[in-house]
């Protein structure tokens, strides 16, 4: 708890840090993402959150890929056996 925030708050704290870094880069003129230059804080927060890694989303993507792979294999097996 002294160096890092509580794990339950890590994503919220990460958003605050990212927004601070973005604003500092903008003020220093070293930012490269032109789409966020004029964003208000509320919009920037939504943008930052949309760019954050979502482990639950990753799990969903992997599950979809596996299902698709299994469906492809099952479909190919059916077409081969019907050709025999």
Explain the layout of strands and helices.
Blueprint: H1 10-28, H2 41-51, H3 55-83
What's this, in brief?
The protein is mostly helical. It is 70% helix and 0% strand.
Q: Whole-number radius of gyration?
A: 22 Å
Mean pLDDT: 88
Instruction: Report the span from N to C terminus.
Output: 66 Å
Q: What's the number of helices?
A: 3
Helix content range: over 70%
Helices and strands, in order, run as: HHH
Report the portion of residues in β strands: under 5%
Low-pLDDT parts are none
β-strand number = 0
Biggest sheet character: none
Task: Provide the structure class.
Answer: mainly alpha
**Shape estimate:** elongated
Key features of this structure:
elongated, 70% helix, mainly alpha
Structure commentary:
By secondary structure, this protein is mainly alpha-helical. The chain is 70% helix and 0% strand. The chain has helices spanning 10-28, 41-51, 55-83. It is elongated, with a radius of gyration of 22 Å. The mean pLDDT is 88.
